[in-house]
Amino acid sequence: MASVGREISDLKMNAYAKLHIPKKEEMMEDIIAIGKTIADSLEMPKPADDIKAIFVESNNGEWEFYGFVGDGAGTIDTVGNLLHIGDTIEMYCKDGHTSRQYVLRILPKQKSINFFNGKLVKSYKDLSKYICSQDHGIFHFVSCLDEYYKSIDNLL
Questions:
Q1: pLDDT digits (tens, 9 = 90+) for 117-152
Q2: What is the DSSP string of 45-101?
Q3: What is the pLDDT of residues 35-66, one digit of tens each?
Q4: What span, in angstroms and rounded, lies between the C-alpha atoms of 82 and 87?
Q5: Closest-CA residue to 92 (of 101, 80, 82)
Q6: What predicted TM-score, i.e. pTM, was given to this entire model?
Q7: Relative to the CA of 139, which of 86, 101, 128, 151 has its CA 20 to 30 Å away?
Q8: Within 13 Å, how many C-alpha atoms sit on residue 34's CB side?
Q9: CB within 8 A of 149, min separation 6: which ones?
Q10: Which residue did the predictor score with more confidence, 18 or 52?
């Protein structure tokens, strides 16, 4: 099992290695490869530990890749919690307003988290399956396993 984890980690790092923010079409080969690696290691058809990719819809309707749910975001909230992709933080504005936002690979930046006293309010582990299986505003959650199984169906 350790080799499967390592292989998935390597595939994810390959996906993150792209210098620009890749579009969905550019990511599908990586997403399908992750799904295949998970599927090849399974005894049952659909595990609880599927890997989800987060895409943000741009103004021209294209989906841009912003990370895999649960991966480290490289930031911490103002009380010292390490933030993960898919966490929800609350940002406190000086005028008393608050806003909640998902933590993504490059957003929000650490400087913004510190300035707006950002605090973790919901872990990526608590993302409901409903949200992950549906479009949620401009966010789209894509299952690596589902994409792999769709790629097999398309070959048949």
A1: 999 999 998 877 666 666 666 888 898 988 998 998
A2: SS-TT--EEEEEE-TTS-EEEEEETTSEEEEE-TTSPEEETT-EEEEE-TTS-EEEE
A3: 988 888 776 655 557 889 999 888 888 899 99
A4: 10
A5: 101
A6: 0.78
A7: 151
A8: 26
A9: 35, 39
A10: 52
Q: Which of 129, 136, 122, 131 is nearest to 87 (CA)?
A: 122
Over its C-alpha atoms, the chain yields an Rg (Å, rounded) of 16
Q: Which two tokens stand for residue 82?
A: 């390490």
- Rounded CA-CA distance 70/126 in Å is 11
* Gap between the Cα atoms of 66 and 69, Å rounded: 9
- Mean per-residue pLDDT over the chain, rounded: 84
DSSP string, 1-21: -HHHHHHHHHHHHHHHT-SS-
- CA distance readout (Å), 73 to 34, 67, 138: 19, 9, 19
Q: Which residue has the tokens 């936002």?
A: 101
